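Let's practice the habit of predicting before peeking. Look at the sequence and jot down your guess about where helices and strands might fall. Then scroll down.
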Amino acid sequence: MKSAIALVAVLTAALVSLSAQKPAPMMAPAFEVDPYWPKPLPNHWVTGSTIGVSVDAQDNVWTIHRPGSVDANFKAADIMLGDAAGRDDEAQPGAAGPQAPAAGRTPIGACCKVAPPVLVYDQAGSLVKSWGGAGQGYDWPESNHGITVDHRGNVWLAGNGQKDTQILKFDGAGKFLLQIGKHGVHNGSNDTDNLWQPTKIWEDVMANEVYVGDGYGNRRVIVFDVETGKYKRHWGAYGNKPSDERVPAYNPKGAPSKQFNTVHCAIVSNDRFVYVCDRVNDRVQVFRTDGTFVKEAVFDPETYRSGSVWDMTFSRDPQQTYIFMANGVNQQIHVVLRSTLEVLTSFGDGGRQPGQFYGVHNLATDSKGNLYATETYNGARVQRFLYKGLKPVTKKDQGVVWSKR
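Done guessing? Here is the structure:
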C-alpha cells in the first residue's frame, strides 16, 4: 500500500513537472470590428478611395480620400444637366418638355455630393471637421496619398500622382504652412530638393524630424526637419545609395532586390529603429535612424503585382511590442511580433461587410489601442477595430473579427 502511494506521488510530481515545462501560449492583441463607427456623413457626402489615416493627441481620427475617384453614378448632386458625365447611354430618346431646365445649373439628381478630401471624426464617430483642396501658395496633390498629424496638431499630406513631387504641411484648420519639393520637378532618387510620388510621412518627435516613404517614383527613405523642411539624409535598400536603374520583376525564388520597389511607409519606433514597407518586394527592412541596415523579413512572398506590405503601425504599449501590417492584396491585417518580425495571427477577408476589406491601405491606433483601417479603390471607407486586450493565439487566420454585440 505504501509503495502504491509512493508511486502515485512520483507520477503526480512528474505530471506537475511536465505541466510546468509546457510553454505558455503566445499572446497577441485581439480586436473586434465596430460596425457602428463612424456615423453617416452629413450633406449627402460620399468618399472615394480612402488613402490615409492618422490619430491625433485627442484621439480624433483624420482621413484623406480621393474625390476624383468617386464614380459618376455616386455623385448626381455634383453633376450638372448637360455634363457628359451625367449622360445615360441606355436612356431612350424623348421629346423635351416646354420648360426644360437650363443645362449647367441643374444637378441631375439629389444624391450624392463628394466630401472634402480631409475628414476628421471624433471617438463617437461624428464628423467634426473637413477641409482640403487647391489653394493659394501651395500645390495640392494630383492624387492624395497619406495623412499624418504631428504632435503639435499640424497635418502632413503626400501624393502619388505622376507630377506629385512635393509634400505639404498645414495647421489643423487647413491653413498652409510649408511645402517641400516643387510640383512636377524631380531628378531621381538622389534629388535632395524634390520627391517623386511620396506615400506617407512619419514624425520622429524625439529628433524633430519627419520620415517620408518616397515612394512610387523614387526608391528611398528621405528625412527632413519638421520646422524648416531642411533636407537631412536619405537611403535606399540595405542602407545603400538608391539607384533608378531598371530592376527585374519581383520573383520570390530569385535573389532579393538590391533596390526598394514602392516604398509605401517608413515608421520609427521608440527605441530608434526605422521599419520600411518595401511593398512590391513583399518585405520589411529595418534600419537605425542613420540609415544603417539591421535586418529584413519577407511577408506573404507569393504576393505579386501590388505586393504584401502596404502599411504598418505600432501597438500602443510603451515597448511597442507588436506591429500591425496591412496586406491590401490578401485583404488582411497581420499582427506581427516586433522583436522577431513573426506573424502571430491575422484577421480580415475580402468583402464589403464590417470587418471585411476591399484594398486595406493604411492603419493607425488610438490611445486606447483601437485600430483604424482605411480602404482604397472602391472600398472607400474607414473602419474601427476595438481593442479587446491580449489573448492567446488560437488561429493563424481569424477571418472576420465579427462584433459580439
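How did you do? The mean pLDDT is 93.
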